[in-house]
Design brief:
The structure is a homodimer of 497-residue chains. Chain A is mostly helical and 497 residues long. Chain A contains 22 helices and three strands. Chain A has a three-stranded mixed β-sheet with strand order 1-3-2, with helices on both faces. In chain A, strand 2 and strand 3 form a beta hairpin. The radius of gyration of chain A is 23 Å and the shape is globular.
């Protein structure tokens, strides 16, 4: 490729190429997590790593580097300028990594996921430990190829949420701990019993019907999506008109699939409402993890755990679920908001949830400042759970092995869950200025809320950094007070504190 | 790439690259047919066509051509020599095609499938007609880039079944027609009524349980496979340890899913039993379509429609299917072998089946010698069905739109269905010399038959041409008499002719 004046056209052709490889890899990943038989894993992982290597070669080719560098000194339209800036940042992270190291790391990650699944199924941390240590070590190796002097974990945090550092998260988690722990303590002292109906068995096919009903209620269509089953619920973006989700069905914990669905539909709706003009472009996929979580947690909690949301559909749900026949709407709402320190993050109530994230954040900090390693991490995990939540996992499956993220080397991802939850409260505060949220939900008009999200947030894709968008939409910088207020108010009302 | 002495190593690296792209495309294709939402189709199709273009560039790169040409003048091990010969044949078909024409054709094919699905659902031939004509025209264009003076349709026939020509198929179909039509006439004259239980409704979830039971009985494991649902049943090879199938469930025609499953598991078992040493190599995937169909039809008919196969499991099936409670095993066997001219090929009985294929073969011949076009093909189809089978489809969905193949530009594929059926009778004749097939099935030991197929046929992958393998395994060249004898004997017994 020669650098002709028509850089912009080359830039778009380049993005089309990247998009084609990305879609192939996204499809293979979705396939691997949903339907692919386990025995085909090693071969598939090798082939996926090969293709990731091809994509790596494409994005770090000398002419690609030269084009981005030239373009980043020039000005096009505002969207392209932003896109080039983001692409240059990504490129600078990758360009000095030797391809063989990159490909070996990709294959390690794929195989690590298969090993994690097996380790989790048998609750065998010893099986996962060596590969986890490799993932940590190799992540450090990859980061060492960046020309970046910041601490490794600060770099990783910035990868997942632009602009965030350990100092920011320390402050954020300190506030959450000091404001929330006393409330959790007060609730514990009230000795409210967990409603027994939460543990009633609901057959998988009935849960699937509820999931379909909720999807419809949230305006999530199978014409542009799909609902599959996986070990760990996730959403996958294929393109503007193809955004899919997964759930998992636990027969003796039927609310799990309900909130997994609502959460993942939040992600899918975000991806599905990005301006179609950005299809196939980098800017379409560069939303941060915290921003994404702010949408999924908004759906799951702000909407999905509110009485107004359930009011118009609860009778229909009761018609499907025998276990809810004798449960009133108010009892149902109290149950799905029941606060109790528990072991599994994705099943945790809203109030204790950020403490689960804090456990992971502190461990990750330790793994990258050298004070912790994979050795004994199951015990470190259990100790922290005991210290912050007052309960201790008796198995690794209920502890350190519960989440998929580390098997994917996604270190620095977890804190965005708490941060996104906090963003979501700030969005809600802004939404309330424009819309009577309760009345809208009771009128069964979720589409109006979806439209507000599209207009204010979704359509922009990854054009704005989180701090910019927060300011633009809510009129102020990130303010965790909304989150704390929301949590404390809700708990105070529900538990009459 | 420079042509160093180490051509063999380069050859294997090249195959690894091809395998990676092929697996990506196979996964995207499986995904598109099974779970992907329709609205994502146009974007996905464009991206898939792009990747097919990438693969095209890889396989037709000057250094790839040079290497194959040099290697084809040398001798390595017998497997590699065979592989090089096959790859050279493929290369010679593709090398002179301009890439843009190839990519446009790929995208046309993907979009044609989506249009076909829509046309079939609404029984609207006019919707499919223009794209079908494009597919025919563009297939002719692609073939015109080969340095091959044979008639276009002879070339296409050879693509799907090495060595076969119109002259061969004319002879083959003439024999089938002259030997089978009188038998069909005799059966028709007996006026035997179709058993009413064949039309009883069986819920989809019950059918799915029967499908699972049959899969287990055929030693088809979800550890190395998967069973999904699609509009048109198919099997997809991913790798030696990942071979999947689809079925479709028709509530008022429950035997459809049964035989789709058995048929597709035949394909999957073939792919799954190829020598693992060939994983990622061309020779693993170069079995001909006729050879493949000989396995699926062997499973479906020779095994799946035999009394010995059902004897050990029929009681269990009856336990699942209410509609079979009052149907004896003998009545069941008579029903699944009921002979009656019908409209849908994949639901046809064994005796009329080859006539369905003949209709398609004659139409394809006409499309490529210029005596037919897409114009009025729905009527041509209906006329031929009436002439050969005595019944006329009243809708395009029941006629010309029923099969997926033409939407994929797979012209020349259909005849291999009849040919494969004929091969399968020759395999059965050979198997009987080594094994008491009925006793083995009654003893519930299908694994013994599977092992015989692995040893004689499957493990070789695409190493041998069909004619070679037939000679090697059965001791004689292809002989359609076994097929005719099998069909006539079976009909004579069942209908007491």
């Amino acid at each position: 490729m020669t650098l002709t004046p028509d850089l912009l056209q080359q830039h778009h052709q380049f993005q089309q190429k990247v998009a084609a490889y990305s879609l192939a890899l996204a499809t293979m990943s979705w396939d691997a997590y949903t339907i692919a038989p386990k025995a085909g894993g090693p071969y598939r992982n090798r082939m996926m790593a090969y293709l990731q290597g091809e994509l790596f070669s494409i994005t770090t080719a000398p002419e690609a580097i030269e084009r981005i560098e030239v373009m980043s000194t020039q000005s096009y339209d505002p969207i392209t300028d932003r896109e080039i800036k983001q692409m240059k940042k990504e490129l600078d992270k990758a360009r000095y990594i030797p391809k063989d190291i990159y490909v070996a790391f990709s294959e390690l990650v794929h195989n690590a996921n298969d090993i994690w699944e097996q380790a989790k199924a048998t609750s065998d941390y010893a099986l996962f430990k060596p590969v986890l240590q490799q993932l940590i070590d190799q992540t450090k190796v990859l980061v060492s190829y960046r020309n970046d002097t910041r601490p490794v974990y600060d770099q990783l945090l910035d990868d997942f949420e632009t602009g965030m550092t350990m100092a920011d998260y320390d402050r954020f988690f300190d506030k959450l701990r000091s404001d929330l722990v006393p409330v959790i303590k007060k609730i514990k002292d009230k000795m409210v019993q967990k409603p027994e109906w939460l543990d009633r068995k609901v057959p998988v096919d009935v849960q699937a019907k509820v999931v379909d009903l909720l999807a419809k209620h949230l305006d999530y269509s199978k014409d542009t999506g799909a609902i599959s089953v996986s070990v760990h619920p996730f959403s996958q973006d294929f393109s503007a008109r193809d955004n899919r989700v997964t759930v998992r069905y636990l027969e003796d914990q039927f609310t799990s699939s309900i909130f997994a669905l609502i959460h993942e539909v939040g992600h899918a709706t975000y991806n599905g409402q990005v301006d179609v003009a950005y299809d196939g472009r980098y800017i379409r996929k560069s939303m941060t993890y915290g921003m994404h979580e702010s949408q999924s947690r908004f759906f799951e909690n702000m909407i999905g755990r509110s009485k107004a949301f359930w009011l118009p559909i609860y009778a229909e749900v009761q018609g499907l679920v025998d276990a809810l026949k004798d449960v009133s709407l108010d009892e149902f709402i109290a149950g799905i908001n029941f606060v109790e320190p528990s072991l599994i993050r994705i099943e945790a109530d809203e109030l204790t949830y950020p403490l689960h994230v804090m456990v992971r954040y502190e461990i990750e900090k330790g793994l990258f400042d050298g004070t912790l390693s994979a050795e004994n991490l199951d015990q470190v995990w259990a100790d922290k759970m005991e210290a912050y939540l007052g309960i201790r996992p008796q198995t690794a499956a209920m502890g350190v092995l519960q989440d998929v993220h580390w098997s994917g080397a996604a270190f620095g991802y977890f804190p965005t869950y708490a941060l996104g939850s906090a963003y979501s409260a700030q969005w809600m505060h802004a939404l309330r200025k424009d819309l009577d949220v309760e009345a809208t939900l009771i009128a069964n008009d979720f589409k109006a809320i979806k439209a507000w999200l599209a207009d204010k947030i979704h359509r922009h894709g990854g054009v704005y950094e989180p701090a910019e968008l927060l300011l633009q939409v809510t009129g102020e910088p990130f303010n965790p007070q909304y989150y704390v207020d929301y949590l404390v108010d809700k708990a105070t009302t529900l538990y009459q504190l």
